[in-house]
Write a structure and sequence with these properties.
This protein has 457 residues and is an alpha+beta fold. Helix content is 43%, strand content 18%. The protein has 14 helices and 15 strands. It has a six-stranded mixed β-sheet, sandwiched between helices. Strands 12-13-9-14 form a four-stranded antiparallel β-sheet. A hairpin with a 2-residue loop joins strand 10 and strand 11. Helix 9 crosses helix 11. It is globular. The structure holds 2-deoxy-2-fluoro-alpha-D-galactopyranose. The site of 2-deoxy-2-fluoro-alpha-D-galactopyranose has 12 residues, from helix 8. Keywords: ATP-binding, Kinase, Nucleotide-binding, Transferase. GO terms for molecular function: galactokinase activity. Its EC number is 2.7.1.6.
Length: 457
Amino acid sequence: TTDAVWLAPGEPQEIHSDLISRFQAEYGRPASGVWFAPGRANLNGEHIDFHGGRCLPLALAHGTYVAAAPRQDGQLRLRTLDASLDDGVTTVPAEQIGPVNGSGTDQDLQDHHARSPRGSGHWSDYVSGVLWSLRELGVSQPDFRMQDGFGADLLVVSTLPIGGGLSSSAALECASILAFVALGTPLGRQNPLQDINAALSRQHRKDLAAACVRAEVEVVGAGTGGLDQTVALRARAGKVLSLDCRDFSVQPLDIGCIQRGYRLVAVDTGQAHRLVDGQFSDRRADAEAAAHLLGFDRLRDALPEKPRKADVLHVLEEFDRLAEQLDSVDGRDTQACRRRLRHALTEMVRSEKLHHLLSGEAYGVRHVASTVGDILTSGHMSMRDDAEVSFAVADLVVETALAQGAEGARLIGGGFGGSVLVLVPIGALPRLTAALEGISRSIRLLDVVPSAAAQAL
Ligand code: GAF
């Protein structure tokens, strides 16, 4: 076993000072500060945030750092130090940081991308998108009212694998939005740099997460549901967030077993994923079609307040009854819609179980670890067979982890690439690491340490 397979989160203070000096070299002026936002892992609740389901995410120590200084000409200049994305300094002119025209339909999104000089999909869309959505938020929220002509120079570096299913996009959005708040709004200008961490109320953070979601949906064109941005901006060190996506309320919960005798490890398969290509939204659309057939705008409402397995069976029977005479559901394959439905509903029940388990105090560490492990593994099977978002390496990582003594393992994030989360007894870690190294040279491991939310450093 070599240490090379572990991806370290790095020392924030070292990354901070390195970024400050590189910023000076790149732009010929000092950075005003550095902002950080974490990536995330998720114990359960994949592909259900946009259906109003419950998710159990936690923030990583790994994340994205943004050094920035304000400009007065409304434009953005930005560069990333991540080798896979670095294409020098990109300038986004002020005129281009406007809203998408019209109603935000697919056609509008396409027109918007067609107008963009770099075409769709450049990583700077995430940053220019949040500058736009923060301006929009400032229209109704005096604390965030954006100074006229505000623009910025930014230098970005991340300790997350890019496109690794650990929320690198949301980390970029959330670190950038904090930089913009600090440098361009009354809330930021009234508070010296680090004080912004205390000045941001819970409601502020909730509003900023919503603004980041808007940027990703309306400007980038990816159908994110808010899980990633919420955990990046509202996580608590040492805790898992129990996040109810009906109203985005959060409850921080202890996960003692990973502090005592077990470790959570994120295995980056090295196979990158992207949310903007059609598969992700396709899965979502299948489940939404099933919801509509059942008569619900939001799938979560098909289940009672505390959903159980029997409720899932009941809804599936109802679906079968309604679909019996139909060739398709909203033009989509009936059986595919049924599988997406079953994934979403069983995932909601797993979240409920986990929430109950982690909020109770009456359980021993062993019991918690093995129950969490079982939930992880059944979540994976559901991602594989019902959501159908898994892929060969992820399945192999899960099998390998279980064979090496892990309590459980699952694919996390949007799927079609990305990372597997493994809960493993500390004693089994060396052989697990060795076995995973044998699967592929692209595999990287991240120690999952429940960490704090986005902040000014
Ligand atoms: C991606 C999305 F951005 C999230 O909103 C969530 O849907 C996740 O995939 C799947 O659970 O990360």
